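#onboarding

Welcome to the new folks! Below is a worked example of what a typical request in this channel looks like: someone posts a single protein sequence, and someone else replies with the predicted structure as tokens. Don't worry about understanding the tokens yet, we'll cover that in week two.

Example request:
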Amino acid sequence: MCKEATRLMSLKLDRKLTFQERISLRLHLSMCHACRECDRQFTLLHEAKHQLGLELPSEEDDRP
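Example response:
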């Protein structure tokens, strides 16, 4: 399902996916053009964030 694939795409930006997760995502991406494009855009945004030196505020930053 696209919803699960999107979750895995996001997760892979934060940590290495397990073997099972990688296989599941690759299988889905091989069949779904929309998710391949989404994955490409996620990767592009992630790389741009790092090149610009931008970091998202952590939850601890919100505490008084």
